[in-house]
From TrEMBL:
Residues 11-162 form the N-acetyltransferase domain. Keywords: Acyltransferase, Transferase. It comes from the Bacteria. Pfam families: Acetyltransf_10. InterPro entries: Acyl_CoA_acyltransferase (IPR016181), Bact_Acetyltransf (IPR050832), GNAT_dom (IPR000182). Gene3D superfamilies: 3.40.630.30. It comes from Streptomyces ardesiacus. This is GNAT family N-acetyltransferase.
Amino acid sequence: MSTPSASPAAYEVRVAEDPADREACFAVRKDVFVAEQKVPEDIEYDAYDADAVHVLAVRQDGVPLGTGRLLHGEAAAERNGDGDPAVGSLGRLAVTAAARGHGVGAALVRAVEEAARARGLTAVDLHAQTHALGFYERLGYQAYGPEFPDAGIPHRAMRRRL
């Protein structure tokens, strides 16, 4: 995928193909969502994880910095607002506290979009925590629909055409 440079160290973003990469993705999610945001662990991991495309940002020394996932096909159609199979669903975007503010989140979003394009998808939907709306808007996403709770956290649906 890409190899952006960012302080404090260079990192790469790649599709998590092997079990070690997937475990690193799940570890970042546990740190950010379960430990930091108090999302119950039993709802953080779901059946969609098995078939999702997971992306991982990792420092050159092997330290995982962030993750995200793309749902596509039937799984994405269940998640997006209109059931359109050409729309992917970006989710579980998490960046470790130490890596925030260095472009890691944006690089992960772009990697998910690249994976969506590779699968012939025409748009990506996501459910953004309301505090993160500005982040996604800067990346070209537009909010739609009312605010709703997810794991007790306010969210809005957003979409970007590819």
